[in-house]
TrEMBL record:
Keywords: Amino-acid transport, ATP-binding, Cell membrane, Membrane, Nucleotide-binding, Translocase, Transport
CDD domains per record: ABC_MetN_methionine_transporter (cd03258)
Classification of source organism: Bacteria, Bacillati, Actinomycetota, Actinomycetes, Cryptosporangiales
A single MF term (Gene Ontology): ATP binding
Protein name: ATP-binding cassette domain-containing protein
């Protein structure tokens, strides 16, 4: 549904050039929720604005629903944008218009008649749970309600793709959860393909089927969440399940174990006790249900100076296991991945 190849965007100033996006490739499958995560300045927002060409890239191609947007002249590009909705961090609502009036705005711009417009607005407000708030002005709405209006407005033109620019970062945790649940529901009911950017690991954990970690304009890693969980040294995995500094456990070797899919519910510790006749301690960790897969990460203390046989045994069972601190970046949530 979305395919980006070799995307590059540079901002030029009198003193220096800043490369915001540096040769990014990205594929988002139809009906997928894809998250791009990174800290401020990583290039996430620029990447997102390039998808609908609000920012014109210096190089690369952007194809959405089979149409290469980067090759379209102005009029055709404007028509193609009707298939791409966008929701914003700070809602971008017109304070002088009611909720219904804000949702109606894109329909007015495209010349939809008054009766059809009113019917569509009512349908959209019901869809986002605000059927009784159409007459309220933004100042009379909570942050979550404002974002629901923004989502309804983004859906006015019946887009196939929805872009989310830090849509939950201005909201509290409970409201963030409700907005993500709404996006998941819209993804299922409408078949929407959603590309969202965020700096919050909780967003990826709750909503995303696939994800990319972005730093300094590039993707450090990208792919289905389930695949990244099975990748040794994955930054996304450490961000989703941070375990903190490696403790010193006298007489034991500390091992980090990542489980996903069917292995997340296996009796792994009981198996280790039976197989090696050792007392295995859980130092930290958790197993949770993610949007894409049930998964978790555990830090174990294995008695003795050599945990090699235990690690080999776990790997033979298809479980990712490694000596704690042995991956290339040993501190959880380092350099652009925030828990």
């Amino acid at each position: 549904m979305i395919r980006i190849e070799g995307l590059r965007k540079t901002y030029r100033s009198a003193k220096r050039n800043v490369v915001a996006v540096d040769g990014v490739d990205l594929t988002v499958a139809e009906g997928e929720i894809y998250g791009v995560i990174g800290t401020s300045g990583a290039g996430k927002s620029t990447l997102l604005r390039c998808v609908n060409l609000l920012e014109r890239p210096d190089a690369g191609t952007i194809t959405v629903d089979g149409t290469e947007l980067t090759s379209l002249p102005g009029g055709e590009l404007r028509r193609a944008r009707h298939g791409i909705g966008m929701i914003h961090q700070h809602f971008a609502l017109l304070s002088s218009r009611t909720a219904a009036g804000n949702v109606a705005l894109p329909l007015e711009v495209t010349g939809v008649g008054r009766a059809e417009r009113a019917e569509r607005v009512a349908e959209l407000l019901d869809l986002v749970g605000l059927g009784d708030r159409g007459g309220a002005y933004p100042a009379q709405l909570s942050g979550g309600q404002k974002q629901r209006v923004g989502i309804a407005r983004a859906l006015a033109g019946r887009p196939k793709v929805l872009l989310s620019d830090e849509a939950t970062s201005a909201l509290d945790a409970d409201t963030t959860g409700s907005i993500l649940s709404l996006l998941q529901d819209l993804n299922r009911r409408l078949g929407l393909t959603i590309l969202l950017i965020t700096h919050e690991m909780g967003v990826v954990k709750q909503a995303c089927h696939s994800a990319a970690v972005m730093r300094a304009g590039r993707f450090v890693e990208a792919g289905p969440v389930a695949d990244l969980l099975a990748t040794p040294g994955s930054e996304l995995t450490r961000g989703l399940f941070p375990l903190g500094p490696v403790p010193d456990v006298p007489g034991s070797t500390v091992v980090d174990v990542t489980v996903s899919g069917s292995h997340a519910d296996d009796a792994l510790l009981a198996d280790l006790v039976r197989t090696f006749d050792v007392d295995v301690r859980i130092l930290s960790g958790a197993v949770e249900q993610l949007a894409a897969v049930r998964a978790g990460r555990l830090r174990l203390a294995i008695p003795g100076p050599d945990a090699g046989p235990v690690i080999d045994h776990l790997r033979q069972r298809g479980v990712l296991a490694e000596i704690a601190g042995s991956s290339p970046a040993t501190t959880d949530a380092r350099e652009g991945v925030e828990p």
